[in-house]
Amino acid sequence: MGSLGFWRLAQADPAWIAAVDPDGTEHPAGELLARANRIVHGLRELGLRPGDGICGLLPNGADGLVLYLAALQAGWYYTPVNWHLTGPEIGYIVADSEAAAFFAHERYAAEAVRGAQEAGIAAGRCFAYGEVEGFRPVAELTDGRPDTTPPDRTAGATMHYTSGTTGRPKGVRRALTGLDPDDSAELMTGLLRLFGVTPGRPNAHLVTSPSYHTAVTQFAGTALHMGHTLVFMDKWDAEETLRLCERHRVTNSHLVPTHFKRLLSLPEETRRSYDLSSLRWMIHAAAPCPVPVKWQMLEWWGDVIYEYYAATEGGGTIATPEDWKKRPGTVGKAWPGSELLIVDDELAPVPTGTPGTVYMKMGISFEYKGDPEKTAANRLRDYFTVGDIGYLDEDGFLFLCDRKADMIISGGANIYPAEIEKELMVHPKVADVAVFGIPDDEWGERIMAVVEPAPGAVPGQELAAEIVLSLEGRLAHMKWPSRIEFIDEMPREPNGKLLKRKLRAPYWEGRDRAI
């Protein structure tokens, strides 16, 4: 193999600034390499072996990056945990991933402590950045450990959790390759090469979203392995994005359409006052981008906006700026190594231009950890689906027309109604409930709940507030309904199946797409 991969690059040029924290602190590659090596030595002393897992509940920045780099050279699975989750939700992931060590930042101390208790993980295997009650300082793990390259290095992997329509998230787990970590990292750079991204300096990748998202980890990690500097944002802000792009001469990033919407709403003089001439590959996905929004972004930034459609599970399409301008609205053509198949309800292929369920060829096979039924359910030979509906044009370009029936995408985050419904149904004044997404110009979708009140309960603003507040400590705030309406009786089929489309349809009338 060649000379890419973080560890090789860091040894060749330890002074290269590999990461910039949200507070502006710069981290040379040599420092990150030494820290990652110490973590490996420390965790091996605790007994961690290849195939074990570690979890990190950490904000964007170098600390999480070091864990990622440690796991990927020691043959471990690294699971970054969503910091919006509550203690029980965190505990479920720590336990389900069979984490042999759990790292948390003091910013999330309260929920980290609850999560560790819920998971039943030994106190000696919980490590804190800052003060977290009952957790050992990370320094106890790393102090006095050598910063030298660990022996017997072998490639690890990330294992992200993706929610299912049944509510409980599942870990997407791929078999470990046994490759040399740098060779594995060099293979990973194929992802960004699909978009034409080039390795080496000067290149900088702006991390705009939380690192617990699969795509954020994959794109940032790949950029790092290509020798790009990672510039981390703590909380996304439109003008701060422009400032960082100018300050660090950012060449590439990963964005969602909500970011575009916010950027376009900045005053014209603000937008014009930043030098964005360094931008080359601004890649977006995660939710449909309204055609007018994308046109405006292309007019402003030029032909540097690439789109793709993929899933945590694998497979995917790419639309270059030129592709998209010829076919506005497309999410692209299958990327090398992936194939698309559109089928009807009987799983038979449909003709060109006819909508059906979108299946993608996986490339590397995966399993949903601990759920063989779910793994098998979404498969068709060596294709899999996330349940989206779309069609192919005569040139093989994919257009999406609907999404898996219930999933809500708000600000690029996937939210599953079944999980919210389950928690709302617990409320004594709720007889029945349906949760779905309604259109929102800024977020893409907002969460709407329709409630059938229990006998004797008085519908109104007071009851709505009481129901929402009952979710405190049980569901992350981002999953709370922003609107509740009441209904006398929920529309259901004789077999009890909820006719959610009936409830949802009025809110989407007049929209050019059902997403």
From TrEMBL:
User: Is Membrane set as a keyword in this record?
Assistant: no
Looking at the record, the residues that make up the AMP-binding enzyme C-terminal domain are 419-497
Residues of the region (Disordered) are: 140-173
- Report the GO molecular function annotations: ligase activity
| Gene3D superfamilies recorded | 3.30.300.30, N-terminal domain of ligase-like
Question: Record keywords: Ligase included?
Answer: yes
Could you say which protein family the record assigns here?
A: Belongs to the ATP-dependent AMP-binding enzyme family.
UniProt protein name? Fatty-acid--CoA ligase FadD4
What is the source species?
Microbispora siamensis
